Each structure stands twice: as structure tokens, then as C-alpha cells.
């Protein structure tokens, strides 16, 4: 495991208008969601987690459970993956159109302007022919949720948030001097060494 220590000499405190004008750049860069734990699946710009055929089966199975509209399907997939994956409308709606053209779903009555779909007999038969494949796909969604939960690291996020807030407060004042910076660096170095030994 490679580890980069934040030694006194190597620790660079970038500034935005000096400490008095805000927190150092390296602290601001720790905001969760900027390439950190908070990234989402497809919406975060990553590659698709399911190909076209797989997504069709997932949508069809969800529609079999109950009639749904496009946004509801996106939200349901996101919830079942623990927030790790949410297909974009630009993928979901064309897939629904394809399923409709294939005769596997049909538009059903719904309140409001949103188009809602229900499964057809052909759609039910289609799922019955692919029971194992569908089960495997939903198992993948569940695994994504588990991975998300572990990588999301609730307690770690809380601790990192506390650290970030404290550093912003202590290092944004006018009284920051070299001794304080070295003291902070020593604490962070020691914490890093302890984590590396876990």
C-alpha cells in the first residue's frame, strides 16, 4: 500500500486570498461529492452499469410489480441500488418506448400528465423465460447498495466533516503561524500512520 505522508516540508497550504479570505484550497477540495464518496452512478458521468438488454429486463420487472412511469422507475432503481446508480431519462424513456413497441408493456390509465405503463401478458411471459437472469440483475442492484453502504462510510464521512470544519475554522484566522501549521501536519501524519496500521 502506497502512502503519501503530509510531512512538514511537503505539505502545501494553497490559499484563496490568504487565510483571512477563506480556507486553504486543500481543505475546500475535501468536500464530499467532488469525486469522493458522494458520486452517483450514471449521473456522475460514469459508464453504464447495465447494458440495454439488462436495463430492459429491470424496467420490465419493476413494471410487473406495479404500473410505473419513467421518473418512478429511475427513483426505484436508485433506491434499490442504495443511491449508487440512477439511469438517466435519456436512457430510460427510449427503453420504455422499445418495450412498448415490442408489446411487452402498454400505457395504462393514470392521474396527471405523466405516462404510466403496465406489463402485458407477453411481458409477463418474457420475464418468465428469463427468471434466473432477472434475479441475477436484481442481485447486482442489491450488491451495489451494499458496496455503496460500505464505501459511503457514514462514520468516516461524519469524522471527515468534523475535521474539515475544524480545519476551516482554525486555519482561516489571522493568527495562523508556522508552529500551528506544523502542529496540524504532525496530527494528520500520526492519524494517517495509525490508519495505515489498521
Automatic annotation (TrEMBL):
Domain annotation Transcription regulator PadR N-terminal: ranges: 59-129
Keywords associated with the record: DNA-binding
Signal sequence residues: none
InterPro entries per record: Tscrpt_reg_PadR_N, WH-like_DNA-bd_sf, WH_DNA-bd_sf
GO terms assigned for molecular function: DNA binding
Entry superkingdom: Bacteria
PANTHER family linked to this entry: TRANSCRIPTIONAL REGULATOR YQJI (PTHR43252:SF7)
Name by which UniProt lists this protein: DNA-binding PadR family transcriptional regulator
Biological source species: Sphingomonas leidyi
